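Continued from yesterday's entry.
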Amino acid sequence: MKGVAYWFFLSGVIYVTLGMLWGIEMGIRQSFAMAPAHAHLNLAGWVTMALFGIYYHLVPRAAARGLARLHFAVATLGVFGLVPGIAVSVATGSEGLVIAGSLLTFASMLIFLYTVATTRG
């Protein structure tokens, strides 16, 4: 695995490692208020990023497009906004960051939809 596929997959592995540590910490403390943020770190961070990486690995033509690098940047910013945004929202009720992160995550999926629809093996 190389290029953007590698970066997507590596970031996914980092996110799931952090998600596991966070889940263990919540379990030790028996405090699960941040479970929604933890779940989104695992879903948007691990599952989605890893699947993007696998796709780009399997379809090198898609990975070679400049759009793939933009996709990585938007997806990463989405995770960076979504997960802390959920945590902030749970803690304070403030929703600005979670809204921005959600929109970036959705934009990332639209980029991926376009990529899959316009790039064949």
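--- second protein ---
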Amino acid sequence: MTHVVIVGAGPAGLAAAEHALAAGAEVTVLDQADAPGGQYHRGASQRFDALLSRCAWWPEATVWAVEGKRVHVLRGPADGTDRRRHTLEPDALILATGAHDRVLPFPGWQLPGVFTAGAAQALAKGERVAAGRRVLVAGAGPFLLPVAESLLDVGAGVLAVLEANPARTVLSGWSWRAAGHAGKMNELVRYAAKLARHRVPYRTGRAVVEARGDDRVREAVTARVRSDWSVVPGTERTHEVDALCVGHGFVPQPELAVAAGCVLDGGFVRVGDDQRTSVEGVFAAGELTGIGGAAAAAAEGAVAGWAAAGRTPGRALLQQRDHTRAFARLLAAAHPIGAAWPGWLRDDTVVCRCEETSYRDLKSAVADPAAPGPHALKLGTRAGLGPCQGRMCGAAVADLCGGAERHHRPIAQPIRLGELADPKETPA
């Protein structure tokens, strides 16, 4: 029987598990969280109990290294001191590691009370905790709408939802071309109705360009921005807030794919028609191959699960995958990142919060003719080399430095020296 290991238990990983099982494979599912579902299904993990009862389900499992199809795992709470090391050598590996929030820096974004959109939603959905009483939701992308909904559900006062792109750009995606995606259009209508009931305005062409406060955020400064996100002078407005939730879409988490040797294309893992990567026996699905939302991730996971089990994906699965990908392309066109956003920054704006690297530091390093490239620039400024390893600032630093590099890290996730040196690694 073919043994398939799936890393990630979000929409893509769970769909992959379901279809790999249907194809007759033995399945092991790993996830760092203690419950399945990922961000999208947070708080509703019980719906997957039946599926995971048919798999080997490893919650709180950190994959710290990948060598081709060989997977090195630490099992146990991330802050625990007795995590156990294991090695898995499956016949096929499916990477469904998802994505995380993309947040563009602006003056004051490091203040307490400034949340990523995903963090605010996780608090609301997972802990039933509101980020604040007077909350402004801002950035770009359709994800702002479910974030606002989650905040309203736990009693937060949402002042407004601000989409930086102008109305004509947004409508280019949410137009008659989306008519073939009735489910998504119904979802949009539901969000709009929710905002209307709570009298929350949705404004386009406006962005948060500064957060102010002493010990925490107290004010948010917004401004009208042009289609390239340059600020229109004289349009600044100040809002009293106790929380600010900001997100500018998502960036993938390809560290394990890079460690496995997979070829990237524009920062995403390159896959074939059956979700196969450039590495034999390794497949990828979900946001790792392109930001497309839960439906697209699940459709890709279904194809990957079938193919990883050694079966040919059916035509219906492939058509569904292609259908959801087409909608994802529409949304990408509707919510782009404006090239002029660095104009929001001041010289003392912190760009890398872990290392407190300022915009001035980055500009000086980029202008230095002796700097031999992005890697040396990171070493010189420390941007992206802190505890988060560039997960928060990486995309922004790449934009500001004129390019991005993905380096193979033999150790993809934090591991203690004692854990690394422990000779009692357990094959599984």
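Residues 145 and 191 are 6 Å apart (CA to CA). The two ends are 16 Å apart (CA to CA). Will compare against the first tomorrow.
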